[in-house]
Amino acid sequence: MPTPIPHESVWSKIRGSMAVGHTRWYMLALVFFATTLNYVDRAALGIMQPILSQQMGWTAQDYADINFWFQAGYAIGFLLQGRFIDRVGVKRAFFLAVLLWSLATGLHGLATSAVGFMVCRFFLGLTEAANYPACVKTTRLWFPAGERAIATGIFNAGTNVGAMLTPMLLPLILAVWGWQAAFMFMGALGLIWLVFWGLNYFNPEEHPKVSDAERQYVQSGEADSGKPASLSTIIRMRGTWAFALAYSITAPVWWFYLYWLPPFLNQQYDLGISVTQMGIPLIIIYLTADFGSVGGGILSSFLIGRGVAPVRARLISMLCFACCISTVILAANASSLWMAVIAISVAVGAHQAWTANIWSMVMDYTPKHMMSSVFGFGGMIAAIGGMFMTKIVGYVLTTTHNNYSILFTMIPVMYFIALTWMFLMAPRKLVQTSD
Questions:
Q1: For position 10, what pLDDT does the model report?
Q2: Which residues are within 8 A (CB) of 417 and not within 5 positions of it... i.e. 6 or more apart?
């Protein structure tokens, strides 16, 4: 059993890690802002759903089908993008992906029917799928195990920042220019990000400004062949399936929040599309998610600093967060808007903390040269789960006349099933492979 590190040594270690350099945090800032833009583009449809449904005559099933085709593109894209990133490098692959998803976002403004939105969402999903394999690969390259969950929590907090910015910005854009201009504006933001990424991102061994001390610190003496692994090797790895199935069980919950939370709040409490009515509740929910994302990383990093093995530290943290997620059961029948917001906020924050740890865990046992491929495969399985989750949600709401109680009750159970699977299947140390 590892010997616990004294409390003072933990803080000394934090101060020491900051002293070796800050370049890795600049690289993290780039993927944070990419994730923010990624979620602005996604969350916009949920916010504009009442307007678009009214103008185009969408039913709940039409809306579910539009989201289904995003998930279909996302599932295909995860596998392709993960492989592509490992083969050509994160800098070039991510640049191309953001360029294409920004164009796809802008094209939404030209759609005139539900079918048109299905086509646009499919291509948006296909290209946006690069975001998380690229962010995870960047984190794996630039951060040692003790900082990995915090770094993951920070870049993943971009999802919540994007989800908060969207209800703040969209009502203003909609009021002045209309929904077509809103999609084109969001596409233009991605093109601005490309300039910063192209000029500033490099891998640790290539970065012109990183110090030798920081380069050695982030690599931590870990050798890596740099040879992309074959898909057959990825599929044969136990750790791939440990991550893929657990992630496929819980990731669809986030899609549920993203797509169906605005319609739920609007239906239950008769909210309109404005910053004060719909915007403030969503901002509070996603602000809590930001705290959960970063705080979840702090907990497991603290445990690692106290001598707990990385994978075990992630599992302990995930158990704590799974318990917190159970509060969402109270949301469906909450007596007031703010009681529902509190119940959902705790659950969403705990979900993001869970996500920071499951992503960090797969980094702990996966070699660098196959990181994006393993994550991309797991993301593909999760996106397929999201496709069926979207169909299930649409069916349940249609047949029960928009009763959300069943859906909110199912959510906590999914995390405990996933945690049990990870406990039984996740490798406890870095996997050694030959291909």
A1: 40
A2: 249
Say which residue the tokens 């960047």 belong to.
138
Q: Return the residue matching tokens 């854009």.
A: 173
User: How does 194-226 read in b/e, with b if 16+ C-beta sit within 10 Å?
Assistant: beebeeebebbeebeebeeebbebbbeeeeeee
Residue 216 has pLDDT above 90, yes or no: no
* Region 350-356 average pLDDT: 92
Euclidean distance between CA atoms 182 and 180, whole angstroms: 5
**Predicted pLDDT of residue 278:** 67
* 320 neighbors 299 (Cβ within 8 angstroms): yes
- Six token digits for residue 380: 């593909």
Cα dist from 25 to 9, 34, 112, 204, whole Å = 22, 14, 42, 12
Structure confidence at residue 255 (pLDDT): 79
> Among residues 54, 42, 279, 285, which one has the least CA distance to residue 169?
279
For residues 227 and 146, is the Cβ–Cβ distance under 8 A?
no
Does the pTM surpass 0.70? The reply is: yes
Specify the 3-state DSSP secondary structure of 333.
coil
Angle, CA 283 vertex, CA 281 and CA 289 arms, to 5°: 110
Placement of tokens 């931590």 in the chain: 220
Segment 280-326, tens digit of pLDDT: 888 888 888 888 888 888 888 888 888 888 889 999 999 999 999 99
**Alpha helices for 306-435 (secondary structure H):** 310-325, 337-365, 371-399, 405-425
- Nearest CA among 171, 168, 155 for reference residue 36: 155
CB 380 within 8 A of CB 238: no
